[in-house]
């Protein structure tokens, strides 16, 4: 190509060469044309309230069936092994980076066996106490759900800190009571007296308010578009609170019976 004195065309040779080098050949275009069309990967469905309800209901049914079978056949010796298995599974679920539905289901079954054994023993000592504890637990759960949905109590950062602080304090007291009991010292927290009744009422109140935190966390996850699989983890969280609430109500009713 003849060079031109026009500065706009001085690098024309280089430009044309570069275009020829970068331009696709006819063979390349034919290969591209013959390739299958691109299919976008399926996107995971977002979390909904129905997902959490279904998973929670599934865990409750499994726990109830396991508990009923344990109490019916009086397999009370399974209480301690089931408690240990449930504790280990709950720690794995909490600290595991990925959500594992089989672990959550295993936790629900283990807790069902544990609660069934405990309930069977308590119901022999105090006839009818099992039905009262179940009704009381469902009543508290339903009541806190209504409170949350109506906005009667709003979950604020301050309320969240108070509830978490109270739970930590109660956990420390429980651990202290356990350690002292190993040395034969009765702190009065679980002896059935006035202090024990007050402590159980405090635990029931904290467990009830914990539902508010659970409901709020579920709402936030739904708004943020969390994957539907997280419903297993939220169902697990609700199950943990329900187990704690049920045990405290059962214990409080036994104190009142005495």
Structure write-up:
This protein is mainly alpha-helical. The chain has one domain. The chain is built from 9 helices and no strands.
Approximate helicity band: over 70%
Q: Beta-sheet strand percentage?
A: under 5%
Span between termini? 109 Å
Q: Which structural class do you get from the secondary structure elements?
A: mainly alpha
Oligomer: single chain
Number of domains: 1
Mean pLDDT: 87
Task: Using brief descriptors, characterize the structure shown.
258 residues; mainly alpha; 9 helices; 74% helix; disordered N terminus; transmembrane helix
Topology:
Blueprint: H1 12-22, H2 26-34, H3 49-72, H4 79-95, H5 101-125, H6 129-150, H7 157-182, H8 194-223, H9 231-257
Helix pairs in contact: 3-5, 3-9, 4-5, 5-9, 6-8, 6-9, 7-8, 8-9
Protein name: Bax inhibitor-1/YccA family protein
Transmembrane segments: 52-69, 75-95, 102-123, 129-150, 162-183, 195-218, 230-247
Keywords: Membrane, Transmembrane, Transmembrane helix
Short précis:
This protein has 258 residues and is mostly helical. Helices cover 74% and strands 0% of the residues.
């Amino acid at each position: 190509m003849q060079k031109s004195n026009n500065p706009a065309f001085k690098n024309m040779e280089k430009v044309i060469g570069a275009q020829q080098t970068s331009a696709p050949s006819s063979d390349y275009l034919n290969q591209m044309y013959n390739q299958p069309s691109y299919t976008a990967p399926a996107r995971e469905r977002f979390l909904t309230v129905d997902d959490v309800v279904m998973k929670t209901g599934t865990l409750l049914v499994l726990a109830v069936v396991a508990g009923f079978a344990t109490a019916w056949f009086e397999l009370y010796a399974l209480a301690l092994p089931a408690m240990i298995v449930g504790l280990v599974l709950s720690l794995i679920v909490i600290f595991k980076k990925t959500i594992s539905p089989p672990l959550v289901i295993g936790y629900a079954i283990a807790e069902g066996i544990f609660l069934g054994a405990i309930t069977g023993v308590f119901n022999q000592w105090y006839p009818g106490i099992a039905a009262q504890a179940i009704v009381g637990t469902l009543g508290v759960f339903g009541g806190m759900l209504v409170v949350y949905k109506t906005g009667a109590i709003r979950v604020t950062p301050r309320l969240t800190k108070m509830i978490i602080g109270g739970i930590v304090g109660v956990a420390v007291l429980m651990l202290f009571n356990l350690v002292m009991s190993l040395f034969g010292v009765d702190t009065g927290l679980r002896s059935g007296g006035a202090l024990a009744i007050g402590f159980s009422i405090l635990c029931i109140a904290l467990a009830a308010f914990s539902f508010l935190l659970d409901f709020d966390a579920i709402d936030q996850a739904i708004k943020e578009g969390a994957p539907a699989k997280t419903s297993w983890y939220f169902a697990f969280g609700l199950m943990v609170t329900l187990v704690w609430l049920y045990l405290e109500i059962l214990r409080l009713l036994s104190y009142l019976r005495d």
